[in-house]
Amino acid sequence: MAVTESAEAKSKPKKAKYVGTKLSTPVTRGVDHLALVTDDMAETMKFYNDVMGMQLLHVRRVPYAPDRGQPPYDNLRHYFFGMGNDSLLAFFEYPKGLERSDRDLPGGMQHLAFHVPPDKLDEMVEHVKNQGIDVVGPVSLGGRFWSAYFYDNNGIRLELATSLAGKEFDNVESILQTEEEAREELETLFDNAEDVEHWLKLMPLVEEPLV
Ligand SMILES: [Fe+2]
């Protein structure tokens, strides 16, 4: 049974006053877990095991904890899969019959992209297609970026992403830009040259385009 959530908890996030950072590298190490919502755990287990090759690692129930934004239902299933590189993909199983979420609204998750090494992309796309799933691509996103798109059993939009740069760059390294490339875009965001320079100074720019 649904637990009523306060209007305050559902309202827009409050604006924080940022005070800058002295950190030069993130303290965070990638994704610990993503927590998504399904209304059919058994089907989701089949999808993520059979299609995505992700192993089921942990199955549990969670109580409703009103003070920290937990799902507004008590005793929900919460199952975890390994998505590679020590990261976890988790699902809550909400009751059936709820309205679908809209990936194209602010605060929504438009899609979830998994990185695939370049030499595995075609094989993975073939594998997904062989499960009877419609796949768009791989399509070129410009330059070295190639991606294939499809939907999971919950209607969540998934992407297989790779960089065909001729060698396996690290994911971060593969998206670095020259100052010129970054400046051209940032000048469309800020009227103020100071803001553009501020952000350019914080970016790890490269001398030459990677490809
Ligand atoms: Fe993407």
Q: Could you give a short account of the major beta sheet?
A: 4 strands, mixed
What is the strand tally? 8
* Uncertain stretches of 5 or more adjacent residues: none
What percentage of residues falls in helices of 4 or more residues? Answer: 10-25%
Shape: globular
How many distinct helices? 5
CATH hierarchy, class of the largest domain: Alpha Beta
- CATH fold label of the largest domain: 2,3-Dihydroxybiphenyl 1,2-Dioxygenase, domain 1
Which class best fits the helix and strand makeup?
Answer: alpha/beta
Give the radius of gyration: 20 Å
CATH homologous superfamily (4th level) name of the largest domain: 2,3-Dihydroxybiphenyl 1,2-Dioxygenase, domain 1
Taken together, the total number of domains comes to 3
List the secondary-structure elements in sequence, H or E. HEHEEEEHEEEHH
Share of β-strand residues: 15-25%
